[in-house]
Design goal:
Blueprint: E1 2-6, H1 11-22, E2 26-31, E3 46-49, H2 53-66, E4 72-74, H3 81-90, E5 95-98, H4 104-119, E6 125-132, H5 142-154, H6 159-162, E7 163-164, E8 179-185, E9 191-198, E10 203-210, H7 214-227, E11 233-235, H8 237-258
Parallel strand pairs: 1-2, 1-3, 3-4, 4-5, 5-11, 6-8, 7-8
Antiparallel strand pairs: 6-9, 9-10
The chain binds NADP nicotinamide-adenine-dinucleotide phosphate.
């Protein structure tokens, strides 16, 4: 498979190139801030993007303008409504895979917090803590937001109504159903997400810790292999892992409750 990488000189870009070569891919084009966006689209089967919002927007604008149907795997975080609108616009003719976290274990965590959101009512306060290295540019992380959205959705709440990103000075009392976000940016932490469901008499905390950026790069490579077989549209980790997870979860619960 032939791919190009946007953000090729970056930490993630380097990991993607390494993982791609291990998988036997041909990395045709490596693009960073000094290169032209159109270089991404010459003779490739897919583009993998781990760059920054400005570069991702330039890529999406180029795809929109030229109506190219080369699959895009987007891992860049800190994206805004402009990017989401552009992704939706180009997905009418192009395959777009967007995941703020390409780790399979984080996909499992996302499913687990959705289940906890369903199982535990709003008597349980939800707090999400993300820890990342000192150089990370966006906060909270895209993954933290994704996890919060899953819990809000499980509780049939609008995420914008329940998310609280700011606590400083004299603060209003916590509202029922609130999902609080806290952030640490320090040292060389690759990425850690802790989701807490805090009840009056008991708590559940579930944590994912990334020990290597390889997990995201390998996830992006798998996503590229998967998306080239899909129709135009916009896809995420749930679409990618659904075929694997749905039978797994069905049999898990059947087995669990069948135990004597
Ligand atoms: N989805 C996931 O699983 C996941 C996992 C980890 C990280 N990420 C995200 O991936 C992104 C990259 O992370 P990183 O740690 O690799 O960052 P990084 O080391 O700062 O690398 C950023 C890359 O983007 C390029 N770039 C910056 N501005 C550009 C522009 N205007 N046009 C083209 N290229 C440009 C840089 O090129 P120059 O060297 O020329 O400046 C560099 O190659 C971040 O958004 C991060 O949050 C996602």
């Amino acid at each position: 498979m032939k791919i190009s990488v946007l953000g090729a000189t970056g930490a993630m870009g380097g990991n993607v190139i390494k993982a791609a070569l291990q998988e036997g891919f041909n990395v045709v084009s490596k693009v960073s801030s000094k290169d032209r966006i159109e270089d991404l689209f010459r003779n490739v089967d897919a583009v993998i993007d781990f760059s920054c919002p400005v570069a991702t927007e330039a890529m999406l604008q180029y795809v929109k303008g030229s109506e190219i149907n080369i699959p895009l795997v987007i891992g860049t975080t800190g994206l805004s409504k402009i990017h989401m609108d552009l992704m939706n616009r180009v997905s009418s003719f192009c395959r777009v895979f967007y995941a703020p976290n390409m780790s399979f274990l984080v996909a499992i965590l996302n499913m687990a917090v959705y289940a906890f959101g369903k199982l535990l009512n709003e008597d349980f306060d939800v707090e999400i803590l993300d820890k990342h290295h000192a150089l990370k540019k966006d906060a909270p992380s895209g993954t933290a937001i994704m996890l919060g959205k899953s819990i809000a959705q499980a509780r049939n709440r609008s995420f914008d109504d329940v998310a609280n990103f700011v606590r400083y000075g004299i603060i209003p009392q916590r509202m029922r159903g609130e999902i609080g976000f806290a952030v640490q940016r320090c040292g060389k932490v690759i990425g850690s997400h802790e989701v807490s469901f805090m009840g009056e008499y008991e708590n559940i905390k579930i944590t994912h810790e990334a020990h290597s950026k390889d997990i995201f790069a390998k996830g992006a490579i798998k996503a590229a292999q998967w998306i080239i077989k899909q129709d135009p549209g916009i896809y995420n980790m749930n679409d990618f892992t659904k075929d694997l997870m749905v039978p797994m979860v069905k049999s898990l619960y059947k087995d669990f409750f069948a135990r004597s």
